[in-house]
Structures are given as structure tokens and as C-alpha cells.
Amino acid sequence: QVQLMESGGGLVQPGGVLRLSCEISGVTLDEYAMGWFRQAPGKEREFVAVITFNGGRTDYADAVKGRFTISRDNAENVVYLQMDRLKPEDTAVYYCGAALGFLPRADYDYWGQGTQVTVSS
Questions:
Q1: Residue from 80, 82, 88, 97 nearest 118 by CA
Q2: Nearest in space to 80 (alpha carbons), one of 24, 19, 5, 26
Q3: Cβ pair 1, 26 in contact under 8 A
Q4: At 10, which helix (H) or strand (E)?
Q5: Between the CA of residue 28 and those of 18, 37, 69, 77, 79, what are the distances in Å?
Q6: Sign of CA dihedral 39, 103, 84, 24
Q7: Is the pLDDT of residue 120 over 90?
Q8: Could you report the per-residue pLDDT of 22-63, keeping only the tens digit for each?
Q9: What is each CA distance from 43 to 38, 89, 91, 92, 118, in whole angstroms?
Q10: Mean pLDDT of 64-91
Q11: What is the DSSP code (8-state) at residue 21?
Q12: Helix, strand, or coil here: 88?
């Protein structure tokens, strides 16, 4: 059974930092690209970042480029999203996903349950 579990969300002030983690089980992680998406209230889920199966390349949404960093540790079956200089508009539920493909922004095979990130003073 494939399971993805996000953690690390919470309440942070504007300009603050958070690091999200996504632990994966039930799949051979190094076969999958891993991505982060987010969904704010009343909005559709949107792409945030993706990393190739071996961590060699990454891709980011324009809204987070230069502030967020995606990384992975295949030996530990974990993917991270380091979020710096957070803004109120980053407030959302953040989801990790696993996909076959190079740097996919859609058509993910597996999803976690999400973790809430709230950026507010």
C-alpha cells in the first residue's frame, strides 16, 4: 500500500520559514518524480515544485521561485520543501505527490493528505 504523509506545517509570521517533509512508503521512491502542490480556500490545487527521481533537476512555480527549495533523500524515503520568506499568500494546504515522469506538473499517481501552512501576523 502506497502512503505519503506530509508534516511540518503550522502558523508562521510573514517573512518566516518552514520546512515541510513528505515521508513515502510502499513504492520504490527513486522511480518517481516528487512534487509539492498547494490549495488555498476557494481555489484549485496548484503546482508548487517538483524534483526528478534522482534529485538532479528541479522546477518551481513562478510565485515561489527563489524562496522555496525542494529536495529529496531517497535513502530515507523523504522529500522536503524548504520555504523561506513566507508571504500571507502562501497560506494553503500543502500536498506532496509522486508521479512517473521527468518533471511533471500534472498527472500524479499518489497523493498525501496534506498539511496546513498559515502565514499571518
A1: 88
A2: 19
A3: yes
A4: strand 10-12
A5: 27, 21, 23, 9, 13
A6: positive
A7: yes
A8: 999 998 888 999 999 999 999 999 999 999 999 899 999 999
A9: 9, 12, 12, 10, 15
A10: 97
A11: E
A12: helix
Q: Which three cell numbers stand for residue 78?
A: 523523504
Cell 521561485: give the residue. 65
What Rg value do the Cα atoms of the chain yield, rounded?
Answer: 13
89-108: pLDDT as tens digits: 999 999 999 999 888 888 89
User: If DSSP codes are grouped into helix, strand and coil, which group holds residue 30?
Assistant: helix
How far apart are alpha carbons 11 and 57 in whole angstroms? 30
Residue 96: what are its φ and ψ, rounded to 5°? -105, 155
Q: What is the pLDDT of residue 102?
A: 87
Q: Is 64 helix (H, G, I), strand (E, B) or coil?
A: coil
Assess whether pLDDT exceeds 90 at residue 69.
Answer: yes
Q: What angle (nearest 5°) sits at the alpha carbon of residue 54, between those of residues 50 and 56?
A: 70
